[in-house]
Design goal:
The structure holds 2 protein chains of 2 kinds. Chain A is α/β, with parallel strands linked by helices. Chain A is about 30% helix and about 20% strand. In chain A, the strands form 2 sheets. A 7-stranded mixed sheet of chain A has the order 6-7-8-3-9-10-11, sandwiched between helices. A 4-stranded antiparallel sheet of chain A has the order 2-1-4-5, covered by helices on one side. Chain B has a domain at about 95-230 and about 270-275: Orthogonal Bundle (MetI-like fold). Chain B has helices at about 5-30, 40-45, 50, 60-75, 85-115, 120-130, 140-150, 150-175, 180-190, 195-230, 235-245, 250-275. In chain B, helix 5 runs antiparallel to helix 10 (about 195-230). The radius of gyration of chain B is 24 Å and the shape is globular. Classes of the chains: A alpha/beta, B mainly alpha. Chains A and B meet through strand 6 and helix 2 of A and helix 9 and helix 10 of B. Bound molecules: adenosine-5'-triphosphate (ATP) and magnesium ion.
Chain lengths: ~300, ~280
């Protein structure tokens, strides 16, 4: 098998436990992503999704194992990998424009100020925040802050986007627009995306692959759902696709039941599961798991 | 009823001032007889003038008002080493404070930065700072006089020492507690250490650093009066001591008022600056 673009190889992350010793958030975690792929991660709160993202970003180091990107092990953060932080990570003393321009001028250090600001304004317009350029983060709503974070990540035109619940604070309409915008940009520029979300419909609409993580501690990648929807899907059509509800039900079933009891599932006789190669499943396709009851 | 809280507070302040001045006036003019009953030991100590002369030992508000007017109408005269205008004396003190404080800023901010950036250095230097901080700055005076051999430079050194600790501690604390999120932003953007120091750490820690400066300048202004009383020569502290020897209480009260006003001005300037760099989160 040819080496994948991003390969997570047996990483573990342990934190000192309050009562001494160590808590293992996850260990011996394996999965891979191909170039240009849009991968969503779904799992319950606290299972370690942000921790994996931080390791991919180079902000955190695995206690064991390594992450290989394009044949090289990660050594710290890089401008090739943009991060949209769960906590926004905006600098409160800078304006919206200042925050985005800071990223732009970090990427293209020899650009004149006017060019930097022009580029930053375009990114701000992409997320629909034109007119708010001179506002400070404290004057923005949670959703607006999130959009500044998205604009900042988009502005540096990275090869890899690491997004931590980027649309969670947005209203349905803005969220839909931004999902289309971000998906469009990532697809046309061939960006590889690793995105954490709690929204099953969002994952199905955006992702090529959906990684299902079990509850922590000792979280695992239980399986990887290969999205059967066509690549050129449209928002109004996705739920009419015959595989849509099987996929959705499979994921919800995982979140409701299997994420908790995955260890017992593994103990069942005849169950084959290799943590180095989590099974790829395609619900709704021939040979996939049987469709469950149609959701309302 | 529609008057604002500020206006009503101002009226109340003026009333309190009026009551205080009136009470002072009444107490002093009524105590004229009491002024005669001076303890003979004390009379010997302060000189014959206060004990026997018709002069009231404690001046009233009118006397002080006259003295203030006299000083403020000609603040900058020089008629010999022991007779200079109160403005000149204040300028000497202010200059010493600003020089000592300025040097302390130049030392404390970069040093505090280094301490705050490294948890090991922070811990290693902490016991020293904790021991140095509570030492009264005047306790350094003999050492300073011995080594520097110049009274004016020694008082500047004392100002330097007393301004140093609050700024050092606040800078180190401010730098050490910059939010990890903001540092992570700089890291993902591959911002170099110098640019990171100026674009992330400094703005993030600026309010804490300026609060340290405000504390320092307040302490420095408290200390300069005492230091000048000790070493003499020039300055508002020396002026107060000199007027005590002349037994001119009106001049002393005038000086006390001016010391308070200048101290308030210094504090307000730094409060303004702090507000300028404070960011809402
Ligand atoms: N610095 C730390 N020290 C100790 N424990 C930590 C630390 N950071 C994270 N953890 C623990 O690691 C686990 C995973 O945290 P993480 O932030 O990755 O969760 P998550 O999957 O992103 O959750 P959410 O969906 O709520 O964002 C949590 O149980 C958390 O308590
Ligand atoms: Mg998280």
């Amino acid at each position: 098998m040819a080496a994948s673009y991003i390969s997570i190889e047996g990483i573990a992350r342990r934190f000192p436990a309050p009562e001494g010793g160590k808590t293992t958030i996850f260990e011996d975690l394996w999965f891979a992503m191909e170039r240009g792929e849009f991968v969503c991660v779904i799992g319950h709160s606290g299972c370690g999704k942000t921790t994996v993202l931080n390791i991919l970003a180079g902000l955190d180091e695995p206690s064991e194992g390594a992450v290989i990107i394009d044949g090289k092990a990660i050594e710290g953060p890089s401008l090739d990998r943009a991060v949209i932080f769960q906590s926004h990570g905006l600098l409160p003393w800078r304006t919206v424009l200042g925050n985005v321009a800071y990223a732009v001028s970090s990427k293209w250090r020899d650009w004149p100020k006017a060019k930097v600001e022009d580029h930053a304004r375009k990114a701000i317009a992409t997320v629909g925040l034109s007119g708010a350029e001179m506002k400070k983060p404290a004057q923005l709503s949670g959703g607006m802050k999130q959009r500044v974070g998205i604009a900042r990540a988009l502005s540096i035109e990275p090869k890899i986007m690491l997004m931590d619940e980027p649309f969670s604070a947005l209203d349905a309409l803005t969220r839909g627009t931004l999902q289309d915008e971000v998906r469009g940009i990532c697809r046309t520029t061939g960006q590889t995306v690793f995105m954490i979300t709690h929204d099953v419909d969002e994952a199905i609409y955006l992702a090529d692959k959906i990684v299902l993580m079990t509850n922590g501690p000792d979280a695992r990648v239980a399986e990887i759902v290969v999205n059967p929807l066509p690549a050129d899907r449209s928002r109004n059509e996705v739920h009419k696709h015959p595989a849509y509800y099987p996929v959705r039900n499979h994921i919800i079933d995982f979140l409701v039941a299997r994420s908790k009891s995955f260890a017992t599932e593994l103990a069942q006789p005849g169950k084959v599961w290799n943590r180095r190669a989590p099974p790829l499943v395609t619900p709704g396709a021939a040979g996939g798991p049987a469709p469950l009851v149609r959701a309302v | 009823m529609t008057r604002s809280v500020g206006a009503r507070a101002l009226v109340l302040s003026l009333v309190i001032l009026g009551v205080f001045l009136a009470a002072w006036h009444v107490a002093v003019s009524g105590g004229g007889a009491g002024g005669q009953a001076v303890d003979p030991e004390y009379a010997k100590l302060v000189g014959a003038a206060a004990a026997t002369g018709g002069q009231t030992p404690m001046p009233g508000p009118v006397d002080v008002g006259k003295a203030i007017w006299k000083h403020l109408s000609d603040p900058f005269y020089v008629r010999g080493t022991n007779d200079m205008g109160i403005g000149i004396q204040l300028a000497y003190s202010l200059a010493r404070v600003l020089i000592g404080f300025g040097i302390a800023v130049a030392v404390a901010v970069p040093l505090g930065f280094l301490i705050g950036m490294s948890p090991i250095v922070y811990r290693a230097l902490d016991p020293f700072i904790q021991v140095m901080k509570p030492i009264s700055p005047l306790a350094w005076m003999p050492l300073a006089l011995y080594t520097i051999k110049d009274s004016s430079l020694s008082s500047i050194f004392v100002i330097f020492i007393c301004s140093l600790w609050p700024m050092l501690i606040n800078t180190a604390f401010g730098v050490a507690s910059v939010r990890k999120d903001w540092l992570n932003v700089a890291r993902t953007l591959e911002v170099g250490p110098v640019r990171k120091a100026f674009t992330v750490i400094l703005p993030a820690a600026a309010p804490t650093i300026l609060t340290g400066m405000r504390i320092s300048v307040g302490i420095a202004w408290l200390v300069i009066v005492a230091a000048e009383m000790l070493v003499g020569g020039t300055g508002i502290g020396y002026f107060v001591w000199n007027q005590w020897n002349n037994l001119s209480l009106t001049d002393i009260i005038t000086a006390i008022l001016l010391i308070g006003l200048v101290g308030m001005a210094l504090d307000q300037i730094l409060a303004r600056l702090t507000r300028l760099v404070t960011y809402p989160e």
